[in-house]
Amino acid sequence: MAKLAHAQWSSRMTFVLAAAGSAVGLGNIWRFSYMVGENGGAAFVLVYLACVALVGLPILVAEWLIGRRGQKNPIDTMAEQARQNGKPAAWLGIGVSGVLAAFLILSFYSVIGGWSLNYTLGSVIGTFSGGDADSIGGMFSAMLASPGELLGWHTAFMVLVIAIVARGVTKGLESAVRSMMPALVILMLVLVGYGMTTGHFGEAVAFMFRPDWSALSGGVVLAAMGQAFFTLSLGMGIMMAYGSYLGQDVNLISTARTVIILDTVIALLAGLAIFPIVFANGLSPGEGPGLIFVTLPLAFGNMAGGTVLGLIFFLLLTFAALTSAISLLEPTVEVTIQVASGETRQPAVPSGIVPSFDSPTQQAT
Ligand code: PFF
């Protein structure tokens, strides 16, 4: 009988880019920095690093392995693997809860994506130029106090996500992710360089890396573990879906290491960029979800070339948010199509972030 061979990533690099596109996003810059600030600094950071290395790495590899073995969408993969191994069918609940969780995360992720879009435009028109902590904090509060503005930016962000997912595979996005990652790292380095000029860099380094273990609590450990899962896109079946396109020849551990190092470096650089500005301006590290939106515009508004750098930064942040949001929408779209059409199949090509596949070929089995 002839059957369609399973679609596969065109190269290991494409796979790394897709996984990194999902992993690197608002979680690394927006969520990481305010979680560090709210959870006592270094104690959180060190537990987070341990969670990433000791729990995140094996789970990432496990999701890819299960996906590669199942070669279907996460719900069917879990159901099938449970059946083959004589385990209860309830294991498919893992796939179902992942799809639901991805949808729920997207519901707030897209709101923050909207903020980022708003700040990109704000940078174009020079809104932050010469601003001080009060005026920039005031702009952020004004945005939060305006439901119409929030709804508008959220809708604009979701329209972009839906448009990309609906159009399917777009080759351009692969090269965009390829250039976005180094550009993001370079910009973060520029911001860290700016942080060094504030005179509060040492304080920021101590805050992030010299632990006050009395700050450690069960809640901090839970928050660090949650951040490790969030930043690596784990537990949503997304990495499982990506694993379903993997060939047997890919070394999963070294690939996971590459993705994790990139993801972690971006998060740590974000912290080193943000906290010097926090301390230099007498802001509170525990500011909450607004932290990057009141600190980074301050830096851009007051550094040479800040208008252009601010624009590039918020554009890159929005783009990183988009590639993650696409991966968050994909499972819901996939399951909806499947329920509507009644077929069981491999997950749809993760549009946008999975740009170049070998075309499926006929093979005799
Ligand atoms: N990892 C993404 C980030 O750090 O922004 C967010 C995310 C994407 C979480 C996909 C979960 C997920 F399944």
TrEMBL record:
Which residue stretches belong to region Disordered? 346-365
Does the keyword Transmembrane helix belong to this entry? yes
UniProt topology in membrane: Multi-pass membrane protein
Keyword annotations: Membrane, Transmembrane, Transmembrane helix, Transport
**KW tRNA-binding (keyword) present:** no
Q: Where can this protein be found?
A: Membrane
Q: Which NCBIfam families match?
A: Na_transp
* Name of the molecule in the record: Sodium-dependent transporter
